Fold:
Amino acid sequence: MIYDIRHRTTFTYEDVVSVSHHVLHLAPRRHPRQRALETAMLIDPSPSVDSEGKDYFGNPVHYLTVQEPHDQLVVEARSRIDVQPLAAPIDLGASEPWEETRDALAAAADETLLQACQFAFDSPYSVANNDVRDYALQSFVAGRPVLEAAMDLTTRIYDEFEYRGGVSDVSTPVRDVFAMRKGVCQDFAHLESACLRSIGLAARYVSGYLLTHPPEGKEKLVGADASHAWLSVWSRSHGWVDFDPTNNVIPNVEHITIGWGRDYGDVSPINGFIVGGGAHQVAVSVDVSPATSPR
Structure:
């Protein structure tokens, strides 16, 4: 499936900004089932510095500096992305017992394990407590296959937590999300990651987009899509496997990956600092649609 994606962010400032520096995680990451066919960044005002690179986790990043005085900044990312479906359904029950995965990560005997092990610890936005650990262990009973248990945990979060916007933000601790039993996709990704890490497993936060479908008989609204978040779980038998607790699915062709890290802070779409500006407003518009014509 080939998608056209447009992600437009507009910052409107009360006062003039003299200088702004930003790091953008808006270009899609390449992985075995995904490749970027085209990517463009449109910045207004035009930056005096605009460079590309990769971050610690291998995600593509843009660095930009705007030195022209401005009271509005528009950042628009446009991408055409080819996403291939999973080759076959994943046999979750064929994965090893979760304790074997935990023990292998603790030993970290080779480079692959070392790379996975860095996702087995608390991170700034995903911190567990005893309640979260006990919740995880309801799925991870003795000897259960690690991916089967992860799917069970995913389903429980989907069933037992309410998706509701406006009750949290990126700084809301996992313990509060767990107590409220409500939140949004990033909250549920942080929660499930904290659950897994609390019992010694590796989980990484994935940032991207999800193809949404309008209600039957309705047209899709322009700009009505949004960024999405899910997580990946590591097992010795299958490597990294994605799980989406917001939708109770294993992500496939309708999930588009931008990047991954320990939590939202590692892959936030736009980060940085400004000189001046005062109070400001942020407006975000996202469109994800199947490509209708070749380029």
Summary: The chain is about 20% helix and 40% strand. Residues 146-160 form the longest helix (15 residues). The chain has a mean pLDDT of 94. Residues 10 and 74 are 4 Å apart (CA to CA).
